[in-house]
Amino acid sequence: MPVTDITTDAEALTMSLTADFAAPADRLWRAFTDPRQLERFWGPPGWPATFTAFDFTVGGRADYRMTSPRGEASRGGWEFLRIDAPSSFEVLDSFLGEDGAPMEGFPSMRMVFTFEQTDAGSRLRNVTYFDSLEALEQTVAMGAVEGSRMAMDQLDAVLQDLRDYAEGKGTRTEILDDQHVRITRLIDGPRDLVWRAHHEPELLKKWLLGPDGWQMVECEVGDTYRYVWQQGDDESTRFGFEGETVLSEPTRRAVTTEQMIGMPGPSTLNDLQLYEEDGATLLTLLIEYPDKETRDMILATGMTDGMEASYARLEGALV
């Protein structure tokens, strides 16, 4: 993990983050000064950022919103106070309301980003300055420390060429916490086709099959969905999942609930995000489980291997 230290100082009224990366400092600078690259990591997992304005000049503004899997939005904005390319910039960071104005009762903070070359690559130093101890404590209570760590830990995927980062590595499963698992897989094909393959029944039936020998016998998609599989001609092996669409942002993001048909209990929340670079698409699936026990039970079924078999077919279906 790139973050090596996050500390708060009640006397200096600061929160400081340090992170090391294998990429050179000028590459790290570009990641923080290009809104399309910022969108890939600025929000923590499950709350990706969308920058609606980005005027990278002294006195200019950058406005963004972070959207949860259930559609809640948290808005923020930067006013650029100083820019010393390519080593440092400083912003006034504020919480924004729907009207784009700073929200009453929420602190504004001065943030300094510094990018240093190291023997191994580069180092990010981010120091946030608060006007009061109350503002510092309020921000920490809102999850700023862990949120910052999780956001910065996504940067490795941005700093590398996408194919170098993920090609040939298959389906990867990361346990983020007791309730969240992140699945990543590079698909050799454009994003619009990968999106269609997740939403068109004739394509879904070609690849969403799991291990060899299974077939999809029911496939309904829309605001709600229902998938049913069986092994060969044996109807006694039938099982399936159903759910509903919570959030849809074609061809970038789709959030759905998922529950095994006929099984009582809470559903999982599946947050699918697609990013394209050089004709390949990075598929990221963030799964939220109701509890650790459910998470462990599902992972123990060999879920990752089954998903890899399906994703390998997906690439073939896009040819």
Description:
By secondary structure, the protein is α+β, with helices and mostly antiparallel strands. The chain has two domains: 155 residues, 2-Layer Sandwich (Alpha-D-Glucose-1,6-Bisphosphate, Chain A, domain 4); 154 residues, 2-Layer Sandwich (Alpha-D-Glucose-1,6-Bisphosphate, Chain A, domain 4), CATH 3.30.530.20. It contains ten helices and 16 strands. The protein has an eight-stranded antiparallel sheet. Helix 7 crosses helix 8. The model has no long low-confidence stretch (mean pLDDT 94).
The run of helices and strands is EEHHEEEEEEHHHHEEHHEEEEEEHH
Strand content: 35-45%
Q: Specify the helix fraction band.
A: 25-40%
As a whole number of angstroms, the C-alpha radius of gyration is: 22 Å
Oligomer: single chain
Count of β-strands: 16
Shape, principal axes of CA atoms = elongated
